[in-house]
Amino acid sequence: MYSTAHPIAVGNKQQPPPLNGGLHATGVPQNSHEAAALAAQQQHQQAQAHAQAQAQAQAQAQAQAQAQAQHQSGPGIIVAAAAAAANQQQQQQQQQQQQAQQQQNQQAQQQQQAQQQQGQLPGSAILSDTTASTWLAIGSLAESLGDIERALSSYDAALRHAPNNPEALIKLANTYRSKDQFLKAAELYEQALNFHPENGETWGLLGHCYLMLDDLQRAYAAYQRALFYLENPNIPKLWHGIGILYDRYGSLEYAEEAFVRVLDLDPNFDKANEIYFRLGIIYKHQGKLQPALECFQYILNNPPHPLTQPDVWFQIGSVWNNKRM
């Protein structure tokens, strides 16, 4: 946990120092020595003020003399002064032009460097990205046609040209997952999450892979992140995996809640019969025999693979046997 910040101290104010070098506000000296010192200080200040006044008077006299000299000398002085001012202005303009030229040269150099960098941007890298996009399109087409092997090789080719392409990583991982190669799929999902760690959907897919690998701790952590990052976590497949995870942990109440949520979100979920069978087992262990019996009877004519009708009849018989006890 984070520690709280220290509060600002408010009761430690110090008395400010006295004004005028230590004298009190009234300016009254405390003894004769202080009075003498004060008088000497005042005399010194008066002498300084007198000297400043004399200096100002001399400066005014010099200014008047210069003005008279200029008036007596005629327009020659004025012309010379104007010429000097014009020369100074011309020099300033030349300096400004030089500075502007230097700035233009610097900008031109920067543009040239930027163009060189773009030219160095790997024409090969640009070509590789284009090639990777082409292979991704080929893979998607093959996948839509049910050609999983062609899709697999196409996505693999895309990654050879762009090893850090998250889309290619996820598509290849999805293909391996569809082939039940969960370890390879998990490795690819992890690589993709290095680039987009807030992708909740990818976290959910990674959790499913770990679940199939029976790595329950990693599956639990991945599902947690999926629920955290997903804006809308109401995804039936996600909750189906979470239900299986809790079932394997032996947390029957949480498993029941997750499975019921799947059926609420999608009553026609493709693995609905499997969920009914799992719920029947959970209810039987919880002693909820009537709900268990209803679940088993519901799937009797269409048991989930790889179960058969005899497997379901066995569970029905077990429930009836428990009812008689």
UniProtKB/TrEMBL annotation:
Its main location: nucleus. Keywords: Coiled coil, Nucleus, TPR repeat. SMART domains: TPR (SM00028). It is found in: Nucleus. PROSITE patterns: TPR, TPR_REGION. PANTHER family: LD02225P (PTHR14017:SF1), LYSINE-SPECIFIC DEMETHYLASE (PTHR14017). This is Uncharacterized protein. It comes from Candida tropicalis (strain ATCC MYA-3404 / T1).
